[in-house]
Design goal:
This is DUF1269 domain-containing protein. This protein is α+β, with helices and mostly antiparallel strands. It is built from seven helices and four strands, in the order E-H-E-H-H-H-H-H-E-H-E. It folds into two domains: 83 residues, Alpha-Beta Plaits (2-Layer Sandwich), CATH 3.30.70; 63 residues, no CATH class. It is elongated, with a radius of gyration of 23 Å.
């Protein structure tokens, strides 16, 4: 599931020419396309479209994560409930069905909470905040949406040599 959401790099530049040169250098060094490397102009109100260019993939990832973790939680809850029904304390052995139901519901909600935590992607907060602050300050930003960890690292190395400031996500 985690391969469906890509790594991001945000590099700040003082002028348009430096940003264009950096974007070209990243595309040449990593083999990324124009769809994966974009430039955010100063005061761009739609910079979020360049940060996350495919919202449907993010939504699909979140749906899969929630369904998968919830199902795992229910299965784990049922398994624990059955074990407690056979080998647990007397009160779980006297009503094994209620024990299984209670633990399945608990597992469902714990699974949903874990999926929500996995979907938050707090590693991308630095990229989003830096881009927001830089565009409002009149800076140019090169945004890289990398399909792999290796290309994210290579892009970071290329941009780090010329950027005023740089941040990256996993």
């Amino acid at each position: 599931m985690s391969q469906e959401i890509r790594g991001k790099i945000s590099a700040i530049y003082g002028d348009e020419m430096a940003a264009k040169n950096a974007a070209s250098a990243v595309m040449g060094a990593t083999g990324l396309s124009h769809n994966e490397v974009s430039i955010v102009a100063p005061h761009d109100p739609h910079f979020d479209d360049k940060l996350e260019n495919d919202d449907k993939k993010v939504g699909l990832f979140m749906l899969k994560a929630h369904m998968g973790f919830a199902l795992c939680g229910v299965v784990l809850g049922v398994f624990c409930g059955v074990l407690l029904g056979f080998y647990g304390p007397v009160y779980t052995q006297t009503s094994p069905a209620l024990t299984v139901i209670a633990l399945a519901i608990l597992g469902f909600f714990v699974g949903l909470m874990i999926a929500g935590l996995a979907s938050l992607r707090p590693d991308q907060d630095a990229v989003v905040n830096q881009t927001r602050e830089a565009t409002s300050a009149g800076k140019w930003i090169v945004v890289v949406n990398s399909p792999s960890h290796e290309k994210t690292e290579k892009g970071y190395e290329v941009l780090n040599t010329s950027a005023e400031s740089i941040s990256t996500s996993l």
